[in-house]
Design brief:
By secondary structure, the protein is α/β, with parallel strands linked by helices. It has a domain of about 70 residues: Nucleotidyltransferase, domain 5 (2-Layer Sandwich). Helices cover about 30% and strands about 15% of the residues. The protein has a 5-stranded mixed beta sheet with strand order 3-2-1-4-5. The chain is elongated. The termini are far apart. The relative contact order is 0.12.
Length: about 140
């Protein structure tokens, strides 16, 4: 008794026919080789050379200090609340919009800081930053 299949038996074999796959790949390769140069739309021109300096327009920085007693400092100079909005409107009219850096004492009431931020927003100063002393 033999328990192995007969060698000459009609067994089904499943194989993938690779010839059509290779033919399709070669046709696609030829199409891409022919089409690749047509996809570039570069025009060969001789551009002039200009010697100029790069303009680096950094925005101005305005320091607005608020002391605990309500005193306002515009770039280190004391100002009154009535003239603060005029200074802010004038600063907002500059070409690169300046940055406003708020420096408030640790014991300054929040109301004074919020009022200064509201004035800056109404005047058109959009970039407002807070300056603090780093922890040691």
């Amino acid at each position: 008794m033999a328990f192995h299949p007969k060698i000459g038996h009609d067994a089904l074999r499943a194989e993938i026919n690779m010839i059509p796959l290779i033919d399709v790949m070669l046709v696609l390769l030829i199409i891409f080789i022919i089409a690749a140069p047509l996809l570039t739309h570069a025009v060969k021109i001789d551009l002039p050379v200009a010697d100029s300096a790069i303009v680096d327009m950094k925005p101005e920085t305005i320091q607005l200090g608020i002391k605990a007693d309500g005193q306002l400092l515009w770039n280190g100079n004391p100002v009154e609340e009535s003239e603060l909005e005029t200074l802010m409107r004038e600063a907002a009219s500059h070409a690169p919009l300046p940055e406003l850096h708020l420096q408030a004492d640790a014991s300054t009431p929040y109301e004074l800081v919020a009022r200064a931020m509201a004035r800056a927003s109404r005047a058109g100063l959009e970039k407002i930053g807070f300056v603090s002393k780093p922890e040691e």
